[in-house]
Amino acid sequence: MLFLVGGAAALAALLVAGFGYEKVSEARDRKRYPPPGKLVDVGGGRRLHLFCEGNAPGPTVVIEQGNSSPSIVWAPVQAAIAKFARVCTYDRAGFLWSDPAPGGNRDLDARVADLHALLTRGQVPAPYVLVGHSLGGLLVRRFARQYPDLVAGMVLVDSPDETVIFRSSVERFYRQGVQFQGILKVLARFGLVRLLGKRIPMLMLPDDPVGYALCVTPAHAAACAADMHALWTAPESIRRRDPNESLGDRPLILLKHGVPFPPIAAAMEEGWDESVRDLARLSTHSEVISAEKSGHLIYLDQPDLIVDSVRRVFTAARGGK
Q: pLDDT tens-digit profile of 289-319?
């Protein structure tokens, strides 16, 4: 009995120490790693982090990251694009320096509304060349449907259409992702994600110290879970492809992975290529490019291919200038 009491007391002490360690680490990191961009009020006193580089005349390139992904992983691509265009990244609610959204779980169109509010209140000049990776591609397509006059062109980076994104065999990955992030959120409260880091199976963390420090927190796990929850519970109005969706003759480049998904995510592969090629019909000025040396994370495997695609769409949107 004394052994059990002693063990429980020791565990409680470890948990208290871990909780304190995490709180102190988060406070330290907020001072050590201030936001590189600006915090923009998007309504209700909630702020999103916006970071823009480059000073070329329009259009402005806007990058929308993929599911459960912080914008910081796009830093090398953004820096390369900034040499020829004004380019902005931002953090969706709860990621990195952005405030979480009230209630946590919101649908995908709430994210589109956040992006519009951010660009408007952040005084980012339109029109935009929208770059969307994976889930980000779905978001920028919905943005283009709601605000067509603001869009000059688009680059979709390994982003299929709704027939793949919401296939029943894929949805279980979202459900499992929500559960996994829920576990990580608990572990992160006691500093265990910070301590164990990349030794946790299936956990992808940025290599740079800033990204690592800000992505081992409970807030990051909650933001990741919210992304996947929005996909898992998407209403029928979002799951259906709009038959009238069109970019007209605005330039569109679609990149698709050449290296298949790993076995654990093999269900994602079915219909992916056909879906991407079908999306090419959105524009009369489109092209599909296969990233033969890349898996799904083309921005890591072949970043130059993304930069070149953005340059081409940017140039075409400016009338070839």
A: 999 999 999 999 999 999 999 999 999 999 8
Does the global pTM surpass 0.85? Answer: yes
**Residues 215, 190: Cα–Cα separation, whole Å:** 14
| Phi-psi region at 54: left, alpha or beta (left = phi > 0; alpha = psi -120 to 50) | left
Q: How many other C-beta atoms are found inside a 10 Å radius of the C-beta of residue 296? A: 23
- CA–CA dist 202, 35 (Å, integer): 27
Residue at token pair 């790993």: 262
Separation of alpha carbons 297 and 225, rounded Å:
19
DSSP 134: T
24 is a domain residue: no
Structural domain boundaries, residue 201:
38-317
Whether residue 199 is contained in a domain is answered as: yes
Q: Is 248 left (phi over 0), alpha (psi -120 to 50) or beta?
A: left
- Is residue 8 situated within a structural domain? no
Helix H segments across 122-252? Answer: 135-146, 162-165, 168-189, 192-196, 209-214, 218-232, 236-239
* Token duo for residue 5: 């009491």
